[in-house]
Amino acid sequence: FFFHAMASHTDPLRALLHPTTRHETAQAVFAANCTALAYTSVDVVGELPHDSQPPPLTPPGCAFLFLGEETTRPAHKAAAGAGWTYLVHRRTASSASLSRRAFSRIPKLLPHLLFPRLASGRHPTTVFIDSKLRPT
């Protein structure tokens, strides 16, 4: 019962997720036919700190990296694509005052609101990759 209540369309937590981000996420999940997916989120000013690779057994097109609006993808050849589907994680009035760190955790805490239900009526299986995205 609790989970069902959390997934309600009137859930006030929905205000933390921008409608365009939710729409683009749904399009990407459906386009890749993701029943299982991996994802992470980062919000820094400028370029991603380093190249990160999605988990090795992630289905093609089903590894999502949510970037803050001021975060840019690495421009060099080795990082282009890198197996991730990049999505912009936009701020809303409800998330505007959050720190970058707290803002980047919204996808981690709300996958049931971020990722759409599949044709089966179930949400895809999700795995959040909690990495610091620092060079090793």
Provide a descriptive summary of the structure in words.
The structure is a single chain. With 136 residues, the protein is an alpha/beta fold. The strands form 2 sheets. Strands 5-3-1-6 form a 4-stranded parallel beta sheet. The chain has a two-stranded parallel sheet with strand order 2-4. The protein has helices at residues 2-6, 19-32, 100-104, 106-109, 111-114, and strands at 36-42, 46-47, 63-68, 71-72, 85-89, 125-128.
Q: Secondary-structure map with pairings?
A:
Elements: H1 2-6, H2 19-32, E1 36-42, E2 46-47, E3 63-68, E4 71-72, E5 85-89, H3 100-104, H4 106-109, H5 111-114, E6 125-128
Parallel strand pairs: 1-3, 1-6, 2-4, 3-5
Short description:
The chain is of the alpha/beta class. It has helices at residues 2-6, 19-32, 100-104, 106-109, 111-114; strands at 36-42, 46-47, 63-68, 71-72, 85-89, 125-128.
Give the overall shape: globular
Q: Looking across the biggest beta sheet, what order are the strands in?
A: 5-3-1-6
| Overall helicity | 10-25%
Give the H and E element order. Answer: HHEEEEEHHHE
Individual helix count: 5
Rg calculated over all Cα atoms: 15 Å
